[in-house]
Amino acid sequence: MSEKLTTYDPAEDLISDEAVAAFMAEAFETGDAGFIAHALGIVARAKGMTEIAKQTGLSREQLYRSFSERGNPTLKTTLAVMKALGIDMTARMTQDTNHR
After folding, report:
1. Where in the sequence is the domain holding 80, given as residue range(s)?
2. Which of 13, 22, 50, 97 keeps 20 to 30 A from 2, CA to CA?
């Protein structure tokens, strides 16, 4: 007997604000712009891409394309989506003192 495997969709597990915050915090920690953009896309799908499109004034197609694994959203688009999702980004200095 063979088992049927299904593709895991992380958007299905992002049902609370705490889950979204933890998911995005982990993405930000990678420092990988492509990974962060893709993670924002996953959160947008979890919250409803149609609603995010309405709030940002961007098309669903543009959002899907921009936040896909190969997408490269502009900073303006990224900030608009983060605002629509209620995700805030804060700045803090790292412990590395070589930046002076």
Report:
1. 17-85
2. 13
- Residue 52 resides in a domain: yes
Instruction: Write down the pTM of the prediction.
Output: 0.83
CB of 51 closer than 8 Å to CB of 32: no
CATH of the domain at 39: 1.10.260
Q: By CB neighbour count within 10 A (0-12 exposed, 13-18 middle, 19+ buried), where does 20 fall?
A: buried
pLDDT tens digit string along 19-39?
A: 999 999 999 999 999 999 999
34 Cβ neighbours under 8 A, 6+ residues apart? 69, 70, 71, 72
100 or 64, higher pLDDT:
64
Domain-embedded: residue 3: no
Nearest C-alpha neighbor of 58 from the set 35, 46, 34, 41: 41
